[in-house]
């Protein structure tokens, strides 16, 4: 896609600090550096979100995430954890519509990154949960 910022980064039309690159992916520092070492793992094939991945692309992209995450962690002995985020759609906080996985190193509970979750425990009955599960199972591809 000609006007996609990540496609431009992949083609090196926009300056970037690349951490890893092969035929299928590029990993580079997020310009925001939410925490030091914040890295994006991006498929070179333009897909908007996880819903556009086929099995082959998923294998190529996701098999590299642990290797890159370990390299980031091993680069700084102050890193004590890491959030790995893949936002899909504006409602899920995706701001660039080219799929990308955030690797956010964590240094402490005060390192300017947070994720909050609502707790809906007990709001759905077991029958409702089972009905939801069945609808999902009906749509799984073998």
From TrEMBL:
Q: Catalytic center at which residues?
A: 100
Organism, as annotated: Companilactobacillus mishanensis
- Taxonomically, the superkingdom here is Bacteria
- Protein known as: HIT family protein
Q: Which InterPro entries match?
A: HINT, Histidine_triad_CS, Histidine_triad_HIT, HIT-like, HIT-like_sf
Cite the GO molecular-function annotations of the record. catalytic activity
> For the motif Histidine triad motif, what are the positions?
98-102
Q: Which SUPFAM superfamilies match?
A: HIT-like
């Amino acid at each position: 896609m000609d006007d996609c910022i990540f496609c431009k980064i992949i083609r090196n039309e926009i300056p970037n600090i690349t951490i890893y690159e092969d035929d299928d992916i590029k990993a580079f520092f997020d310009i925001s550096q939410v925490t030091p070492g914040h890295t994006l793992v991006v498929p070179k094939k333009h897909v908007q979100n996880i819903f556009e991945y086929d099995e082959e692309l998923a294998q190529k992209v996701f098999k590299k995430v642990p290797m890159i995450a370990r390299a980031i962690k091993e680069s700084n002995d102050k890193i004590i954890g890491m959030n790995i985020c893949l936002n899909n759609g504006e409602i899920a906080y995706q701001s660039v519509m080219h799929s990308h996985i955030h690797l956010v190193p964590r240094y402490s509970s005060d390192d300017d990154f947070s994720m909050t979750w609502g707790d809906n425990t007990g709001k759905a009955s077991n029958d409702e949960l089972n009905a939801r599960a069945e609808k999902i199972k009906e749509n799984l591809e073998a």
